[in-house]
Amino acid sequence: MFMALHRDIFWVGRQWAVTGAGIQAVDQRLRGVLDIELARLWDDDLVQSRRAKPGVNAADFDEALTVARERFPNAAVEAAAPDPILAQMKALGVIETPVVPAMKLRAEGRLARFLPQWRIRR
After folding, report:
1. Residue 41's Cα: distance from chain center in Å?
2. Could you report the per-residue pLDDT of 38-78, keeping only the tens digit for each?
3. Domain, as residue range, for 24
4. Which residues lie below 8 Å from residue 80, measured CB to CB, with a gap of 6+?
5. Domain-embedded: residue 111
6. pTM
7. What is the number of structural domains in the chain?
8. Does 76 fall in a domain?
9. Mean pLDDT, to the nearest integer, of 80-101?
């Protein structure tokens, strides 16, 4: 079974493509082994290990990396710097964070084929 490229394709080179999933190899016979997902796009160790693999077109990979990093800015840097006004309002109690109840699974010890099925009705 071959993995297809993500449906959102932003750039295609000779060997690499920038898609909605990150950087993907155009040759789908690799089955996603060399792909880099969006969450790990800024992990330099992973990027260098993929670039050092035999058979990788380094120029095409570097261009794909540049396009992907421009398209998807580093989310870790943005998440590390929260809005100071929002943090102060939460500390003063002006804004309350909602409490989400934990989900409970009630299927322990039962076979999945005997559980009732659910469907979304339109």
Report:
1. 9
2. 888 888 899 999 888 888 888 999 999 999 999 888 755 55
3. 1-98
4. none
5. no
6. 0.57
7. 1
8. yes
9. 68
